[in-house]
Design brief:
Elements (H helix, E strand, L loop, with lengths): L4 E5 L2 E4 L1 E2 L2 E2 L2 E4 L2 E4 L7 E4 L2 E5 L11 H9 L1
Antiparallel strand pairs: 1-2, 3-4, 5-8, 6-7
Length: 73
């Protein structure tokens, strides 16, 4: 994680997130809801990193738009 960190916000780290370079994290959560408090506009209930996906390139990772569709469903 440290080798891919580009920015820190207290305990939160921003990692490299380019289509050809970066980490893919599998995040498990209990629920989703819209949030004006978070920059992404989405809040996850009990989020946790399930695993690092070394087998998946960043270009194949889901985007925020996928989470928005899950909220609507």
């Amino acid at each position: 994680m440290r080798n891919n960190t580009v920015n820190r916000f207290g305990p939160v780290r921003e990692v490299v997130h380019e289509p050809a370079e970066g980490l893919v994290l599998e995040v498990a959560f209990e629920g989703l809801q819209r949030s004006a408090r978070h920059r992404s506009g989405i809040a996850m209930r009990f989020p946790r990193i399930a695993r690092l996906r070394w087998d998946k390139p960043p270009s194949e990772a889901d985007r925020l738009e996928t989470l928005v569709r899950l909220i609507r469903a």
